[in-house]
Amino acid sequence: MASSWRRSIGNVRSFIGNSMGGLRGGQSAASWVVAGTIAYFLWIKPAQDLKKEQEARAALAAMADPNQYVEKRKPIADPQVTGLIYGNKNRSDKPQD
User: Fold this and answer.
1) 53 is a domain residue
2) Where do transmembrane segments lie in this chain (predicted)?
């Protein structure tokens, strides 16, 4: 009975080791550190810098004209004009002469 749970733990450890590239111990940790560092400098840091730059530009634009209105949402289209509702399309209430 005791050997079955040991075998299960061994299988789990083996699976985790194989899923991480088959490296063990310090090599595996070092390769993850290198991969994480490369990923940080290639993807995460440029995205953060771009976001900070865009926020700075937005702050400068807001300071330049504080009364400027900025639309936050897209307007909702009229379903009759877009063709979602059929019927009295583009009909005006004025009688024609």
Assistant:
1) yes
2) 25-44
**Burial grade of 53 (CB within 10 A; 0-12, 13-18, 19 or more):** exposed
- Is 57 part of a structural domain of the chain? yes
CA-to-CA distance for 50 and 54, rounded, in angstroms? 6
- Kindly indicate the confidence band of residue 59, based on its pLDDT and cuts at 50, 70 and 90: confident
Q: Answer whether residue 79 is part of any domain.
A: no
Q: Which two tokens stand for residue 96?
A: 């024609």
C-alpha to C-alpha distance for 20 and 24, rounded to whole angstroms = 9
Q: How many domains does the chain have?
A: 1
Confirm whether pTM is higher than 0.70: no
